[in-house]
Amino acid sequence: MASNNSIHQFIIKxxxxxxxxxxxxxxxxxxxxxxxxxxGLTPQYQQLQELQSQFKDDLVVVGIPCxxxxxxxxxxxxxxxxFCERNYGVTFPLTEKLSTKAPNQxxxxxxxxxxxxxxxxxxxxxxxxHKFLLDEEGKLIASFPSTADPIEAMLKYMPV
Length: 160
Prior knowledge:
Layout: E1 11-13, E2 19-21, E3 29-35, H1 44-54, E4 59-65, H2 77-88, H3 107-113, H4 115-118, E5 131-134, E6 140-144, H5 150-154
Parallel strand pairs: 3-4
Antiparallel strand pairs: 1-2, 3-5, 5-6
């Protein structure tokens, strides 16, 4: 059973009707990113896919589409999935669209942004493509702002 301060406790509906059960990622680092298809930072999908491909044995990238910032993820699940696959070859898991902010903040984002829950730090998601890194046990170990280059941010955490 996953501990309360582990992301492994969460199961979220996937973008294509499947489920994303975070406990299945036990033993791998998780890079969780709130994503948007119409954002100036959307090209980060390419870097996230590169990370997923390069470190597939040690890391899983999970994208959570979000329409909280500038209405930059207005599409349906099918539209988002098609866009990500067609433009960036995304193969990593994408969940249903969730809110990162109160009053409708999804429980997984409450966990990621509240020290009492994640055991590390309080955090504020200020824009699309905020990144959260969790260790092999699902514990939060770092977060990176939207503008952080995903590959550069991950270099010190991944095997050479």
